[in-house]
């Protein structure tokens, strides 16, 4: 079912757009879907609708609203150039506070059970990890999260069940980054780390290169199992 754009109010009074997609029946757990650097474009809205069809009240926020609001970019060379420029100007700490407002919005929604998870891709994968570390979400699934290794001093704050998916052929999250994350988090009972050896960065992006169907299907199965258990 298609969603609708709503307005979320940040803690400092700013207002930003988010894409809210309802599940087939309610009440339902809430889920943040956090995008790549291309922001909440048509693909990510489709991902949100896919999770909603699985029984979640899904919210996908505009992550660049403080830089250039409502800029949703295509998977083209020009789109990539613009996305990288926006990402360079992103204040991650301020964004996590904004995502806290999104979590509060979901929890306050009459169709939400009160439990909220987070999942995200690339930039959004890092954000999903930070939601687990800072916002007290009930579960988190990160897909090829970039620069998580720079935030490993926050790993002890990750108390919820968490899954981290990484691609074996990923120059944006190279083997040494995955090794550092494993060294810090492998022993954590609530964290599962999975490597997809044949996949590249962006392997979940159905319909666009470098989509890798087998890896995406297995990662989705693991992600849904996590949410079905932790958000029930």
Task: Give your account of this protein's structure.
This protein has one domain: Alpha/Beta hydrolase fold, catalytic domain (Rossmann fold, 3-Layer(aba) Sandwich), CATH 3.40.50. It has an 8-stranded mixed beta sheet with strand order 1-2-4-3-5-6-7-8, sandwiched between helices. The two termini are 22 Å apart. The protein has 6 helices and 8 strands. 47% of the residues are buried. α5 links the parallel β7 and β8. Helices cover 35% and strands 25% of the residues. The chain is of the alpha/beta class and 232 residues long. The longest helix has 18 residues.
Beta-strand proportion: 25-35%
Lateral strand order in the biggest sheet:
1-2-4-3-5-6-7-8
Strand tally: 8
CATH superfamily, by name, is Alpha/Beta hydrolase fold, catalytic domain
The amount of helix comes to 25-40%
- CATH topology, which one? Rossmann fold
* Total helical elements: 6
The count of domains is 1
Span between termini: 22 Å
**Oligomeric state of the chains in view:** single chain
Largest sheet: 8 strands, mixed
CATH class: Alpha Beta
- Give average pLDDT, whole number: 98
- Uncertain spans, ≥5 residues at pLDDT below 50? none
Cα-based radius of gyration, to the nearest Å = 16 Å
């Amino acid at each position: 079912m298609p969603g609708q754009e709503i307005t979320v109010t940040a803690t400092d009074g700013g207002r930003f757009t988010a894409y809210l997609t309802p599940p087939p029946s309610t009440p339902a757990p809430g889920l943040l879907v956090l995008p790549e650097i291309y922001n909440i474009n048509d693909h990510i809205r489709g991902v949100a609708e896919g999770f909603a069809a699985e029984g979640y009240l899904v919210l996908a926020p505009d992550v660049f609203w403080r830089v250039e609001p409502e800029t949703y970019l295509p998977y083209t060379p020009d789109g990539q150039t613009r996305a990288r420029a926006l990402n360079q100007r992103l204040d991650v700490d301020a964004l996590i506070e904004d995502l806290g407002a999104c979590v509060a919005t979901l929890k306050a929604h009459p169709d939400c059970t009160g439990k909220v998870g987070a999942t995200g891709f690339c930039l959004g994968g890092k954000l999903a990890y930070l939601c687990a570390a800072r916002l007290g979400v009930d579960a988190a699934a990160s897909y090829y999260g970039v620069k998580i290794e720079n935030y490993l001093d926050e790993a002890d704050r990750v108390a919820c069940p968490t899954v981290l998916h990484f691609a074996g052929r990923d120059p944006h999250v190279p083997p040494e980054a995955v090794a550092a994350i494993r060294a810090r988090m492998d022993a954590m009972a609530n964290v599962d780390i999975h490597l997809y050896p044949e996949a590249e960065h962006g392997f979940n992006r159905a319909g666009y290169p470098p989509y890798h169907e087998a890896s995406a299907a297995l990662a989705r199965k693991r992600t849904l199992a996590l949410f079905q258990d932790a958000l029930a």
